[in-house]
Amino acid sequence: MVPESVKVVVAGGFGAGKTTLVGSVSEIAPMTTEELLTSASVGVDDLAGVERKTTTTVAMDFGRITINQQIVLYLFGTPGQDRFWFMWNELAQGALGAIVLVDTRRLEASFASIDFFERRGMPFVIAVNCFDGGCQHSVAEIRQALAVADEVPFILCDARSRESAKLALIKLLQHAMSRLPPAPVLA
Amino acid sequence: MARRGTPMADLGSEWVDDAAGPLVRPYTLTGGRTRPMHSRLDVATQVVAAESGLDPMELGPEHRKIITLCHHPLSVAEVASYTRVPLGVARVLLDDLINRGDIVVGTPTRHEGGPDRDLLQAILDGIRAI
Predict the structure, then answer these.
(1) Sign of dihedral through CA atoms B106, A21, A125, B125?
(2) Closest chain A C-alpha to B60 CA, distance in angstroms
(3) What is the pLDDT of residue A79?
(4) Which terminus in chain B has less CB density within 10 A, N or C?
């Protein structure tokens, strides 16, 4: 039997701790996969021009958690640079939701991720990475600065901690479930 | 990564910089094809080897490597990573193997309109248990 796979996207600015968070909860050491920009933009008939193109490589880190025999969860870190938005679409397609890692010293680095998931209507949680005593602001202050809806869960976390990463996932799943239509009442 | 305007002589190598790409062009492995013909393979889709009854020696080394790797179910992203090819190349190679029956694909994601409650609950229970 082939298991079903589910995805969670881990987003946030460059250096916010995405790969660290993936690694702290993954059962495998974080792996990297690459996509070539040309593979997304060049059709089969366009190969004549390929030798003139510069090949741009987009790298994504990912980890995996075997939930049970039927389900495997993958955590995909988004490529950090904004020019790789096309990969974000692919990662977000069919994903359960996203964890947006926020570094309070570079709050603005998370704005693009938040915009992206809001626009897609995808459930997401904000995980404020408080490594190195980096959290000098209250959750209320950060929430206000990020201007996200009240129902978006916030957690203070240490991306290096497995328990923190688990908590971020648990909050995300609970949030995703809270957005489902109510379960039908059995007569 | 080479920067525009950087003299080639400053790049550390006289005739091959990073922008030249790998020495074997990745899409050489796929005969120039950049998209799979049939299957819709997500980065997380699970693939596993199956018994096609066809002779694996008809295949190239990358194809055979994938069959060996997929003795246990793996995601498309893991296959790409282990075979050290870009995702797009892995998709085309996997597509060949799916068409031959050497590889079968798991449920892509059963939820077009989003995951259902049972699935989310099962994942929640699983996360709590790790």
Answers:
(1) positive
(2) 21
(3) 84
(4) N
